[in-house]
Amino acid sequence: MGDRGGELSGVRIQDAWSPRFAAFFGWYALRQLRGRFHAVRIMPGTREALAELAACTEPAVVAMNHSSWWDPMLAVALWRSFFQGRSNLSPMDASQLARFRFLRRLGIFGIDPDDPRSMAAMGSYVARRMAELHRPTIMLTPQGRFTDVREPVVPRPGTAALLAAQPGMRAWSLAMEYGFWADARPEVFLRVVAVETPSDPRLVGWQRTLEGAMESNQRALAAAVRSRDAAAFECIVGGDAARVHPVYDLWLALTGRAGRIDPSRGPRR
Questions:
Q1: Domains of the chain, with CATH numbers?
Q2: What pTM does this model have?
Q3: Average pLDDT in the 44-73 region?
């Protein structure tokens, strides 16, 4: 799809948001999560933060850290489960979106991250689409690349520029981490918090606030994951008791012993 009158010169591919398609794809994403992961766990306060996002009448930004191929799938699954009443917009590298153009129906639009015009063009495009969509949510990864969760969070200025240009827009931080506890399959760990609007809501103020919120959110989640304490999380997908191995589990059952694993202590005797 070409630019409209040249006004979107930095936006290579425009979105084609479809709530019905997004709902179907969200169901597919949840099915994939159930099949590929042992559990999806959220920290206390996350459900309340997502409920606040769902009830918010203003445009919103969800700033996510970016450590895995699964991040977009997880974002769609969260949208379907917690704030399906909102529309979605998300930027993506246009060279990748050109290969999977059906993703446009999830609200994804394509930019060239190496084009210096992209930030301004994205701002103009998002402003126009926010006026057209119902309760829009912009879900994006401000770091702009895959990063290890142990690295400091250094967001690019694009997200802060969006927030500074749209008075009244609110922001949330979504921290995601993937790891193995006691099951053969990995687990997903999430923490969502609202980001307070800075006292100086210009670009520099938002940049500092967003960086601090994302960093502290990621660190809090990492500490909880390292504790390996299932009680520190609420399980929203999967989470059946972890087992050692199907054959060994059968042997333990036949001999009257349990095969379940305590994630924090290893096999029970």
A1: 11-238 (3.40.1130.10), 242-269 (no CATH)
A2: 0.86
A3: 96
